[in-house]
Structure formats: C-alpha cells, structure tokens
Design a protein that fits this description.
alpha/beta; Rossmann fold; 2 domains; 6-stranded parallel beta sheet; 5-stranded mixed beta sheet; 11 helices
Length: 292
C-alpha cells in the first residue's frame, strides 16, 4: 500500500530534522516542505528531492493528497494555520506552544480517540521526556507533587525556546497534571553552557502517597521501554531512589544525529514523537487500531 503523504510547514532546524526522519519511515512520505521565504532549509529539501514552496500554508492547503501536516513554525502562526488545515480535513501535528488541540505524549495517551481529532500538540521537550515517567509512577504510587529540573545545552536552545521560557514551564506543568496525573507540578529549565555540550537531562522529583520503590522501579522501566521504541536515545541515568516519600530519578535523551547534533536530544524527542504520532495516524487510515 502507498505511503501516506505528509507536509511540513517551516524549514528551520525542527522542520529539517523532521524531514530526515520522515524519509526513513515505512508509512509516511514527505511530499511538500513550505516556508514564507527562501531559506537554507528550503534549499536542503530541494537537494533531497522533496518539493518545496515559499507560499506557506497556502501551498499545503492546495494539496488534497497530503493527509498529515506538521507545523514547525510558531504559536502565533499555528493559531492562524489550525482552522485552515481543519477546514481542509488535514490532521495537524503542532510542534509549537499554541496547543490548539490536546497534548499528545505517545507513550501515555495516544489512542484511537485522540487520532480522530483534527489537531494534537506535542507539549514541550521536557513534557515528552518527563510526562511518561511521572504517569508511570502515578499509576502505582499516586503522585501528590512533582518537580522537574530540565537541563539542556544552551547550544540547542534557539531563539524560540529562549523567548518562551515562561510558556515552556507553564505548558509542561499543565501536562504533568493533565496527562501524567500529578496533583501539583513545578518545572525548572536550565540552559547549560558547558563545553562540550551536554545531553538533555531531566531530574524528576515526585512526592508519592504509596512509596513502594520496587513497584515504582518496575513501572518506570516498563515505561522507558515503551518510549525507547520511538526515541532510541532515551535512557535512565539514575534509577528511581526513595527517601521517605520522595522518589528521585533522572532521564537522559541523546539525539539520533540526523540533522541536529546528538546533544540536541531536547529537539530530537519532539521530532521522534511527531513521527510516531503520524505513523499511528497512517496505520489508523489503513484500518489498524492504536493503543497508548
């Protein structure tokens, strides 16, 4: 059966890394990459044999065969794009902070029902990295409070990340409560200027109501296995340890090095998750079932 055709809005770092990953997919084919100006990303897509346009979302809307659209632009731009894509019956995967649709963290809440919607949001890099672990702990230990310290290389934090630190922390906190199930949440982001650049690391502190560390460890390792299926560089750096009712664990994310450097795991986890969602949608179009 033919692959499902997809489009990418935005040809920056995220859009380009996504393009590399899509070319490996057995279910998806990148049909069109668009921007509103000529850019290195547009030139790179052309060199890879992918059609391009500088007419922005307008070009995507004219392509009836494109079923899935990745928006890698900005929150403001996606707010304008979303209703247009919906009108054309396209499934939008939002990699911006706009959050027009519900948060989707594939290992936790990607269901057939979610894929029936017209728009889903990728939360943040810290959300993709930590929501699954907190969800796993919550299921077996009931998380009353979670505190996340997400540390990324300053070299992998572009202007968008730097300009939206407040939105980053608020969005991640909401996802930790709404998707992972924690009662309360706090998020801290650290841009580390170390040389050589560090990998993305997330320290997760949870206050739990049922502190059975054996059961908690089992849940965390099981969840890690689910995530590694679509984010191969996702690993436990510090297995869960407990003191009184506080469980601490640490996660590291190493990028695949497709277009972005391997230390940009914070960006890689977003593009990996986006491809995973699109592939699940493609399977659903073929009549397959999806389960979180």
């Amino acid at each position: 059966m033919d692959k499902v055709k997809v489009g990418i809005i935005g040809s920056g770092n995220i859009g380009t890394d996504l393009l590399y990953k899509l070319r490996r997919s057995e279910l998806l084919t990148p049909e069109l990459v668009v921007n509103i100006i000529e850019s290195p990303g547009i030139e790179r897509a052309k060199s890879m044999g992918v059609r391009t346009s500088i007419e922005g979302v307008t070009a995507i809307l004219q392509e009836d065969d494109i079923k899935v659209v990745f928006d890698c632009t900005s929150a403001a731009a996606h707010l304008a794009h979303a209703p247009l894509l919906k009108e054309k019956g396209k499934f939008a995967i939002d990699l911006t902070p706009a959050a027009v649709g519900p948060y989707c963290v594939p290992a936790v809440n990607m269901t057939d029902e979610l894929l029936e919607l017209d728009n889903v949001n990728l939360v943040t890099c810290a959300g993709q990295a930590t929501v699954p672990i907190v969800s796993a702990i919550n299921e077996v230990a009931d998380v009353a409070y979670v505190e996340i310290v997400s540390s990324i290389s300053s070299k992998s934090a572009g202007p968008g990340t730097r300009q939206n630190i407040d939105e980053f922390t608020v969005t991640t906190s909401k996802a930790l409560k709404e998707v992972a199930g924690a009662d309360e949440a706090k998020v801290i982001i650290v841009l580390n200027p170390a040389e050589p650049p560090i990998f993305m690391r997330n320290t997760i502190y949870t206050r739990v109501k049922n502190p059975d560390i054996t059961v908690i460890k089992e849940a965390v390792y099981k969840m890690t296995g689910k995530i590694k299926k679509y984010v191969p560089g996702y690993n436990i750096l510090l297995e869960p340890i407990i003191q009184d009712d506080i469980v601490t664990t640490m996660i590291q994310v190493e990028g695949l090095g497709d277009y972005l450097p391997v230390y940009s795991g914070n960006l890689d986890i977003i593009t990996c998750a986006a491809v995973n969602i699109a592939e699940a949608y493609a399977l659903k179009l073929r009549g397959g079932a999806v389960s979180a």
